[in-house]
Amino acid sequence: MASSSPCRLLSGVSKCSQPALTSKAWQSGRRLALVYCTLVFGLAGPSGARAQAVSDRFDESDSNFFFGTGASGSTEQRAAEDRLAETAFDHHPESSGIREDGSQADSGWIDQDISNLFPELRVIDEVSAGASMRRVERARGSLRDAQNLLNLAEREAGQERVRLEASRPQGGWQRLDYEEAIRRREAQIRNRARMQAVAHLVKAINELDAVGNPEVATSAPFKELLSLVYRNYVKLQFRLQNFSACQDVLERYLKIRPEHAQDPEAHRLLAACYRRNETLAHRMQDLRMSDEYRRRKNEHLLKYALLAFGPSSAEYTAIHARVERDGGGNPVQQR
């Protein structure tokens, strides 16, 4: 079952086909790219820094989601999904000047596209420092646009609450119904902005995936930006309860840096993606894929428990017992 992902919508040259450039122009571009990476991202803090806080419990609500102890569509099942959706990647601080206001400054790169005149130079143009950094700039702009949309939506939701509060009934069941109506209106405003923001993040992912310069693509600031875009994409899709759309992005996220593979939250969310796909495959009577997704779910769920609670913890023991009853599994080993 092929996973659908914005990462499939790529343009440009495959990284595996990049030629080795040894000219003076390449060396100059390499130095300029590294300097410019520092200027673009600002290096506000250690690139690998992240909060260590993780979910401190794994209760019956989690079991309802991951192992189906609640009936499909039941109140318990929906509550489990809502909790998972609202807490995705909440412990990660966002950093590096990504959210600053204002338009992007002129990069100083001169875009002289001569590839139409000399088609054989298109590959070289794609891996040049200038082309790569223009893609980085556009990705940062898309990330900023996404965050601005979310900030505006929060302000709009607050203003809408104030407006609706002015005509709130004074008591009884009508007051409770009115409060629920206000919350639905706030959710409508936020979800509309989230869907628009996801479109901007898809653009950012595609730009970063098309970066062809190896010095830029392997630099710490680039990996920081890529990680940040991935986390924000996953957070928004989880808020919208589109768990399945995050599978490919989370699999790639775990491979960006070694420390990502040690992040329990990433494994918890990936297990949730596999759980959703396991359920969908089962409904389609594709038992082979359902079993495969169940195996992956259990592996990442055990990895989450191992990293979050430790091998000797009561939580790990309880989750391991549930996994054994669900068909078994071993903590995934990241390559």
Characteristics:
single chain; 12 helices; mainly alpha; 335 residues; 0% strand; disordered N terminus
Shape annotation:
flat
Mean pLDDT rating: 75
Task: Tell me what portion of residues adopts beta-strand conformation.
Answer: under 5%
What structural category arises from helix and sheet content? mainly alpha
Oligomer: single chain
Low-confidence stretches: 1-55, 95-125
Number of helical runs? 12
Order of helices and strands: HHHHHHHHHHHH
| Percent of residues in helices | 55-70%
- The termini sit apart by 23 Å
How many E strands? 0
**Radius of gyration over all CA atoms, rounded:** 23 Å
Main sheet, how many strands, which sense, barrel? none
List the helices and strands and how they pair.
Layout: H1 24-41, H2 60-67, H3 75-87, H4 122-126, H5 129-165, H6 172-209, H7 214-217, H8 220-239, H9 247-256, H10 264-283, H11 287-309, H12 314-326
Question: Can you characterise this structure?
Answer:
The structure is a single chain. The protein is mainly alpha-helical. Helices cover 62% and strands 0% of the residues. The chain contains 12 helices and no strands. The protein has helices spanning 24-41, 60-67, 75-87, 122-126, 129-165, 172-209, 214-217, 220-239, 247-256, 264-283, 287-309, 314-326. α8 (220-239) runs antiparallel to α9 (247-256) and α10 (264-283) runs antiparallel to α11 (287-309). Mean pLDDT is 75; it is low at 1-55 and 95-125.
